[in-house]
Hints:
By secondary structure, the chain is an all-alpha fold. It contains eight helices and no strands. 81% of the residues lie in helices and 0% in strands. The protein is elongated.
Amino acid sequence: MYFDFASLPEYVPYFLPAAWMTLEITVLGILLGFVLGLVTAFMRISDKRMFNLPAHTYIYMIRGTPLLLQLLFIYFGMRSLVGLSALPAAVLALGIHNGAYIAEIFRGAIASISAGQMEAARSIGMSSSRAMVRIILPQAFKRAIPALGNQFIIALKDSSLASTITINELLLKSQQLASSNFMMMEMLSIAGMFYLIYTGAFTLLFHSIERKLDTSRA
């Protein structure tokens, strides 16, 4: 079988809108997941059952079912209820999915901080909430950076599932072009190249953040 990899550069421009769509879904999904994860982490560590139980249930359900199922459930369910289009559905599904994992990342990071620091903050007159914001969270965030970086890269690759609800991201674009030029391996290679570029860029970004914050001393 002959592969015409020499012709790949002429097809790269066709992928640029899809590459932007992949980046848009990833960034919006991870931002939503970050907010959901932080809120859920606080609920998860709460002593009050009215907060802890919903957070635990959310994490259990999301981590116990595949993202593709969640994506289809949200897309078809929300479309029939409120007419939600494909792009918001993909962002919502990716955000909800990542939120459960980010919540556990933050919960673990917060739990790793010595309880004595909270006690010391309280002893000098700080409220629990202020101590959490001023003392605990900055340290927990530093410790969470490596895991958050990994989750960001996972979210990038998970965005390819948006092709199942007709969002024209990298994977769907490669399939569309391959159906007309019969160059499936070549088109998939271009999509893979964009994913590798993104992954490399995100890896460098988070390594830079780690060095700046000196997470090894968190």
